[in-house]
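TASK: fixed-backbone design
INPUT:
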């Protein structure tokens, strides 16, 4: 009888320890994945910030140099790139549902391209090849 109790007790202990280890391992794994995702998101946001900085710095330098058409061209190219990105998001239900209300409030013209406030360029070459400020 004592042997049976020891065997059952030992098996129960092994089961509890196994489940506890599984639970702890799962928690550690989830935490690690979340931290990796947050780090990658942070790095991507900063890379995007560098790209925005370059665009704005370029436009500022062009304005300072009196090259207003080039600055306008750069602004149009950057706005066009952002429009393409937003349109892609709006074409996906989950993304659209997440941003639609803010887009409608902040930039409703993105929902109706006939009301855009800038010259849309499919690619930058069209803009720069016609630029008289060279």
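OUTPUT:
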């Amino acid at each position: 009888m004592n042997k049976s109790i020891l065997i059952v007790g030992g098996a129960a202990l092994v089961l509890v320890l196994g489940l506890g280890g599984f639970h702890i391992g799962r928690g550690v794994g989830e935490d690690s994945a979340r931290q990796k995702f947050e780090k990658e998101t942070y790095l991507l946001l900063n890379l995007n910030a560098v790209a925005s900085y370059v665009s704005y710095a370029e436009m500022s330098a062009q304005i300072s140099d009196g090259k207003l058409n080039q600055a306008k061209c750069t602004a149009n190219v950057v706005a066009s790139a952002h429009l393409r990105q937003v349109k892609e998001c709006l074409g996906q239900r989950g993304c659209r549902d997440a941003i639609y209300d803010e887009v409608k409030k902040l930039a409703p013209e993105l929902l109706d391209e006939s009301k855009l406030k800038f010259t849309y360029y499919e690619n930058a070459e069209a803009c720069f090849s016609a630029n008289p400020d060279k």
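COMMENT: Residues 29 and 77 are 42 Å apart (CA to CA).
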